[in-house]
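TEACHING EXERCISE
Course module: macromolecular assemblies
Task: Read the component lines below, then compare them to the predicted structure of the full complex.
Student: A.B.
Group: 4
Components provided:
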Amino acid sequence: MHDEQHALPRPGFHLTPERNWMNDPNGLVFHRGRWHAFFQYNPEGGDWGNMSWGHASSVDLQHWEEHPVALRYTTEEQVYSGSVVAAGPGGRLTAYYTSVSTDGRQAQSRATSDDDGLTWQRDPDNPILDRGSHAFRDPKIIRYEDAAGFRWIMLTVEAVERQVLVYSSTDLRTWEHVNTVGPFGPTGVVWECPDLIPLAVDGRPDELRWVLLLSTNPIGDAQDPDGSSMSYLVGDFDGSVFTPERAELQRLDHGRDFYAAVGFDGAPDGEAVILGWMSNWRYAADLPASPWRGAMSLPRRLSLTTVDGQPRLVQEPPAFVRERLAAIEPTTVALSSDAVDLALDGDGVAELRWDPSITGELRLRLTADTGGAVLIVHDPTSSSLAVTRSGAAMDTVHPDFASTSIVPLAGDRPTRLLLSLDGPLLELFVDGGLATVSDLVLLGSGRPTLTLASERASPVSVAVAVLDRVPATDQVHAPA
Ligand code: FRU
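Instructor-supplied answer key:
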């Protein structure tokens, strides 16, 4: 057991459960003015197990209220990941989740809620899709409409086969298997938590593409020590067949801790908003936990933009972050090789802009009282940003915890970096979200110090905003 002294400071503007284990976001849905997030949850402890759906909701994606456990495990059934859609005028929510039976069989089941997700009725016909498989999971329901009319599409994985099975339904009850995507890409991984999100390239509705999101986790011998990660593919979708434009999977986040992200159903203004679990199966079980273990990322708004003739995924922080930064007049800091303290006085966000042809190498360092450190280095000659986390507190978590993530940058031109730090959650949005880095960082509970230095004397534009910390006890209604 880890003692309180080594507990991670609880984030203030991210979703964490008041206590116990949490992994994947499930059933993300915007419904009657609230963002609902269900999540993989152990109601009884800080380790993975007794898998159930926890539940929280928010009006602004910043402050979350935790509700009673929504779908509880039984002696016959573990409740794995899945999704929720708000369907029909009565405001009924329909959930699909993976039932894992005692013999390890994984099949898809259904439940409905008529009270905004607080209580759920399981379908007496469950499971409604059963292939006798032990790795058939993570149903994601999306909406699809063309000249033939409206239908629901369910994406599930055959995780070990590295395939996405596509099903179609007009009534959310009976499902027809219409296609299978994959396998492709690296072997030695399972595919988990698929999603397929329509996005207009450069905001042009006549240039619609479908973005397949995949979470992949190493299996077998000689596993990649980097562990879990997410990838995406841009392509076309005709209601059954997904046709990628290019065969290679693109890395979705360059850090170590962004997994199982999927989109919200019914987000306002047709926006695409995803939420991910900020951990990695490589060491998730080894993280200090007391009383909570597991956090969600900042919600991210997705779009597609053309870079070098190809559509690239752009991930932006949520409105509450963008608005806070937009309200601040950036200051210009005169930099040199002597580090300048940026006075990030608590948890918050900082936005920096610099011209690497003037600054030369730029070094950003985060430190706090455990001796842990994060070093972010922009080396203009390599057109990359290197993010390294190190220190004794991090080394004791797991031998593979210390890491360096390399973020490819477009080149030697002005660069923009949005840094969010909330307790142990570090998220970087580079160049307006063309690349992201999400890392858990063990810096301790004291005030973190953010310093900046450059190779050559130069001006750097800096905006720093501290985000209000809502005490967990006021924020969270303890689960029943
Ligand atoms: C992904 C995952 C899913 C599964 C769930 C179990 O992190 O392995 O495939 O449904 O977690 O908790």
